[in-house]
Amino acid sequence: MNLLSGLLEMELLRIWMKLSPDFRERLGLLDSTLILDVPLGVISRIEKMGGATSRGENSYGLDITCKDMRNLRFALKQEGHSRRDMFETLMRYAFPLTHSLPIFAFANEEKFNVDGWMVYNPVEEYRRQGLPNHHWRITFINKFYELCDTYPPLLVVPYRASDEDLRRVAAFRSRNRIPVLSWIHPENKTVIMRCSQPLVGMSGKRNKDDEKYLDVIRETNRQISKLTIYDARPSVNAVANKATGGGYESEDAYPNAELFFLDIHNIHVMRESLKKVKDIVYPNVEESHWLSSLESTHWLEHIKLVLTGAIQVADRVSSGKSSVLVHCSDGWDRTAQLTSLAMLMLDSYYRSIEGFEILVQKEWISFGHKFASRIGHGDKNHADADRSPIFLQFIDCVWQMSKQFPTAFEFNERFLMTILDHLYSCRFGTFLYNCESVREKQNVTERTVSLWSLINSNKDNFKNPFYTKEINRVLYPVASMRHLELWVNYYIRWNPRIKQQQPNPVEQRYMELLALRDEYIKRLEELQLANSAKLTEPSSSPASPSQMVPHVQTHF
Amino acid sequence: MFSLKPPRPTFRSYLLPPAQTDDQINFEPKIKKLEPVLLPGEIVVNEVSFVRKCIATDTSQYDLWGKLICSNFRISFITDDPMPLQKFHFRNLLLGEHDVPLTCIEQIVTVNDHKRKQKVLGPNQKLKFNPTELIIYCKDFRIVRFRFDESGPESAKKVCLAIAHYSQPTDLQLLFAFEYVGKKYHNTANGINGLPSGGGGGGSSSAVGGGQGPQTPLFETYSDWDREIKRTGASGWRVCSINEGYMISTCLPEYFVVPSSLADQDLKNFSHSFVGRRMPLWCWSHANGSALVRMALIKDTLQQRKIDQRICNAVTKSHPQRSDVYKSDLDKTLPNIQDIQAAFVKLKQLCINEPFEETEDKWLSSLENTRWLEYIRTFLKHSAELVYVLESRRLSVVLQEEEGRDLSCVIASLVQVMADPYFRTITGFQSLIQKEWVMAGYQFLDRCNHLKRSEKESPLFLLFLDATWQLLEQYPAAFEFSETYLAVLYDSTRISLFGTFLFNSPHQRVKQSTEFAISKNIQLGDEKGLKFPSAWDWSLQFTAKDRTLFHNPMYIGKSTPCVQSHSVKSFKRTKKSYSSTLRGMPVPFKNGIISDQQLLPRRNSLILKIRPKPPQPAKNQNSGMEEYFQEWFSKPVDLHGILLPHLSATHIKLWKLCYFRWVPEAQINLGGFITAFHKLSLLADEVDMLSRTLRQPRASPGGPCSAERDQSRMYFQASGPHPHSTSGTPEFLSSSFPFSPVGNLCKRSILGTPLSKFLSGPKIWLSTETLANED
Fold first, then answer.
1. Which sequence positions of A are flagged as catalytic?
2. Average pLDDT value over all residues in chain A
3. What is the pTM of this model?
4. How far apart are CA A219 and CA A410, in angstroms?
5. How many domains does chain B have?
6. Which residues in chain A are contacts of B360 at CB distance < 8 A?
7. 3-state DSSP call for residue A229?
8. Residue B517, domain member (yes or no)
């Protein structure tokens, strides 16, 4: 563990530490006096360590566990009882909800020249997809969250299904999360639908409306093939869910559907897996048996299963084999992972910075991924069983894809890391609350700033220089352990020994070359000016630099 | 001139490679079909028609029909069936698309599925059944499978036996290179071809690029060594010729470098005491005067102390500051060659294991269990520590190893790659391999196991290439070459045509080829043995265009085009770049010999301590090294100075291009690092072009597009006649590029991504927008 000494300061948003001058010198730091900067939102747990009688250096103080894979330990002097004040203040501001205080985002008065809340407009997004069309309509049935309180107000459903049909279907789907359209293939018109599990229960209940509804979905494109249902869960879990009233679509009830289980584990398994990852990377990296330790966390195995599931969804749809319905239990964790990743593979638009923001806004935020419960914003109950790194896992999958396709994404690694940092920071309203109905009640868009305001007003920082815009190319990552890697730059970024080269040397070299090119072009232009100055001399050469420069430029 | 005309491509190419000028000249409709184009000296031993080459295990839909040929050089599959699914192939001029050189064959398995029999074929073995199937396991991890359902059973059997026989020769002189080079000499005698040129290890070795670049020094001559001494600025060292005609040792080169203070007579006297008479050989000197030296063990126990003392004193005298000698006993600090071989065998098993899915669950721990990455790390770590000793402690380093021709090759080369930017250029890297491997007597014949007598096999050369790749991966702008170059270099060790990787020592080449020449009635004249082609003559294997793929677009060379401008930095290696890293580092020792013992704990040392222990306790030196590394890593990297590897377990990676390129399941279509490489190349090419234009403001009317274009060092060019050089990612790119696994056996479809995906690649919808882009 590294020891530093200095002055600890705290603001409403963050704690930070100023190094004492002698340490600054020892570390060779000249300007950056700020050595530690922790948003309070990232704090998961605060504990006192040692007591008034503790002996030994650094045995008395505070222990802080963070949500972003690090722990902090502040050793304090025992004299003066400063710790109690500090502890209480920290507790109050790190966990405002527990203390009936507002979350920091509501006090944040940052101004940006772009309004991130304007990024996602569902009507526009559906219009981009070519909706509504002959087979699909936009319904406002959920305008006041009456059909389903965790769905957005605006939904896309089959043209042939009436609002009355939808209500009857909702009765048969867990938490009324009926099958609605997420994405439509622009050419073969197959679709990706999302929903929650059917309420089959132990008795094997059936619902004629639900059965008919799925058949209507199947028939929206001219294909006569079966509708493919991907149940994200392991089949055992799906069966077990019958005991609590859930279940899956049986062959008898849905003869025109084909059901596959994708074997993705639940939120509890993922949480434990990430905990193990932390154990092997923090505070020290498990060097001697790194790969087998990594394997024993199963983290990459879970990543592989999620990606594999998404690849299958994307393949079904892009090959035009059939439309796809995706669900898990409630349809807000694994389902969101699968639909959004499949859409990222299928639709190059989502691989741009704005497109990705829309994807997150649409598939995650508007469709009710329970960010508040999964992250526990401002809540001190760190052991809450509802917490789980589902969104982190999704971002990890995106990172894996960006590693395999270095030119396919407009955004860089920093973009993904910034999203994750503000997933916890509570500086922006973007990830607050569990669903749109609550956000609307809290007036989030008016009272807080969107994360996309920060990002979109500094877009250049988040751009991947290798990005090659390509239209309609489907990306199939290889979901094999041979290619999946631990995201070292994220998970091990707090370890000073594993310092990665920042920025990435390949990117850095590219930027240098770009600068060199601009320099040369400038000089060529100067030369050209100098040449044209010599107009007195009748030039017969057709290839003056003036003609070459545009030739070069046309390419970029 | 030994002008081997690149043979015409054996088969019609259905692929998209850029048009070659020589192709255009040779273009004529072929009348005779399914006939191989043979190299000089190549003879077809046996052949069988109506053979099916299997592409996938679960369907015969993609199989190819053709003729299977066994020659004394390769097995060749000639087909008229195009490979419609394969979009690109990096073409080797010596080998057809489906060819496997005999020296690349690892194991031959014949199967009869009616009788449910299977047999691994050794040389001179009988086969009691008619094979319905032949599976070739290659040393480069390829698996090639042929079916004989429609072919004559007897001729199928004969071909299998011929392959088994010719791929496992009993004698070195039966390797194809001899036949090839013999034919060349005969042709010379008949006045058909010119005389071969260049050194014995190989002919002239032009640079990889299009033009006439610098030649690779082969270190066969006095002057090459002399130039290397001057290049490094070493003083106190001289070239020694006592081994001319291999009079002293048959495993040392004829010329090598020794401390000036040792007279020839001394060396002759000492030589008897060294294993293999391998006395100390100078490898390289740091700008501060510290030298890197390698030697074998002193077997004469009585003389041991005395000789060791004399040697160390001589090395000390050759140091400008008379600094001490640091000895590193490699046998005690590194895994041995058997361990390394065992690790490689496990790695190979893991990579080719069928089916693909089965190895997935335990992939990471299985990879760890091979220990391959651990060994790579160990070698990198040890080399980095020696760089510290040479640079920061300013001590000369003596590598000691039993014979001094295995582990020493790896460590000596890695130290130089890290410490001297010259060895990170293509010519420099090749000269390093000549100096520390070929001339230093690395036993390529035994270690590559060209004669299939497995007990001496060990992949040390690959280990070195892999370790170099790790450095390239960590410092991508520090190397002139690309990872493709490293992979192709590795492949060249298994083409038995070049003299470079064929022998156990320079002497063996002379001896064996002289014998061969006599038996074939070839007049050698004054030459010392036959002149085999050199692997460094890349034009034998690849067209100028394909060779541009060896160039790393990120490399910031000294030759980086720079305008006469103050703002564009020119990169020059100066002494400053060395001394800058030495700042504030005291030289801790004066005189006295220091061994590994003080840096790294080890058992018994042969090192004699003349003086009592130096003042600092061992712990301090260790922390000195820690401090050195810490300081180095805290600063921005000087790509033309010292390079030290990151050694954390998270930094040492598997070299996927090398080990996965033939595995269809592991291929990322339209992805992989190559797609970024492509973008970089376009930009680097444009920068080159601009810089040329700037230097010649009054360019010819064609501008940079015609003659200038040929100068491009990039494979992917910013603009040009080729349809794929538009700014989008070319469709043929994949993580295996420029290799294509499609012709090889694909075992099973991977989860989620059906086989057809690997074969046909992702579907691209033709919308109006894409069509517009193609214009």
1. 328
2. 88
3. 0.87
4. 36
5. 2
6. 304, 480-482
7. strand
8. yes
